[in-house]
Amino acid sequence: MTTQSIQEKLKSQILGKEFSCLLETDSTNARLKTLHERQARPNGFMLIAEKQSQGKGTDGNVWASEKGNIYASILFEHSNKINTLFPLYPAVALAKTLNNYQIEAHVKWPNDVLVGQKKIAGILCEGVSGKYMIMGIGINVNQTTFPNHLSDIATSAKLESGLDFSIEEFLADFLNEYETLFYGKGDIIKEWCHISRMIGKKISISQDGKKKEVEISGLSPEGFLQIISEGKSETLMARRGLDISVNY
Ligand code: BTN
């Protein structure tokens, strides 16, 4: 992966129009934050790395980050588009990109991208309120083996399709899809519901350690998960403390 090979493929006008590419870093999210605070980067600036030594996952987990996959962070300047819907866009864009490669990806609330019951990507949005937001995404592209503790829950584009992917082309396709969705006029709630398999399903969730069966009724206009639990409608606003089963 070289700066030139990426430049040749990228067609997006804002997202990734300017970028830096590193062989290795601790975390592209952490590094982009430092870079931006040292010297302001433009809206849409992207930092990519071939490997990460301290990839950050949700809930303080480590995102295992070996070579052959995509590890990218994109900077978004503060705007009215940085709202509770913001984390849904990259997930829908990635699922659509994978679908275009005949990989049957779907989204799990709020922004996990799954193929079957296995996770193919992770998204971590971090920012400073009122200033900027960083969307970090790790996409399992060409990885074919996973450590034991991940082998039942993780997959990659190559494992699902048998194809060897060009990282540059895949990234370019994803950025185009993401840019069209994020800056376009489409309805993200509709798109999310369309590419998710959760709506209308009975799913077991665990909320702060308490297990229950709920029905998923939809997404609220803010992108929150609407459920019916013991006959009552409820809205789940945050993923923290929430474990949603993938058996649906
Ligand atoms: C998750 O746990 O599902 C979220 C994982 C997010 C990983 C990506 S890899 C690129 C970016 N940099 C990081 O340190 N984390 C995100």
SSE arrangement:
Elements: H1 3-9, E1 19-25, H2 28-38, E2 46-52, E3 70-77, H3 88-100, E4 105-108, E5 112-115, E6 118-128, E7 132-139, H4 148-151, H5 157-161, H6 167-183, H7 188-195, E8 202-207, E9 210-219, E10 225-229, E11 232-236, E12 242-244
Parallel strand pairs: 1-2
Antiparallel strand pairs: 2-3, 3-7, 4-5, 5-6, 6-7, 8-9, 8-12, 9-10, 10-11
Helix pairs in contact: 3-6, 3-7
Can you give keywords for this protein?
single chain, 248 residues, alpha+beta, BirA Bifunctional Protein, domain 2, 2 domains, 7-stranded mixed sheet, 5-stranded antiparallel sheet, 7 helices, 26% helix, 31% strand, globular, binds biotin
Concise description?
The protein has 248 residues and is of the alpha+beta class. The protein has helices at 3-9, 28-38, 88-100, 148-151, 157-161, 167-183, 188-195, and strands spanning 19-25, 46-52, 70-77, 105-108, 112-115, 118-128, 132-139, 202-207, 210-219, 225-229, 232-236, 242-244.
**Quick check: average pLDDT?**
95
The strand line-up of the biggest sheet is 1-2-3-7-6-5-4
CATH topology group of the largest domain: BirA Bifunctional Protein, domain 2
CATH architectural type of the largest domain: 2-Layer Sandwich
The count of DSSP E runs of length 2 or more, i.e. the number of strands, is 12
Helix content: 25-40%
* Through-space gap between termini: 37 Å
Ligands bound here?
biotin
The tally of structural domains comes to: 2
Instruction: Estimate the strand proportion.
Output: 25-35%
Give start-end ranges of low-pLDDT stretches: none
Overall 3D geometry? globular
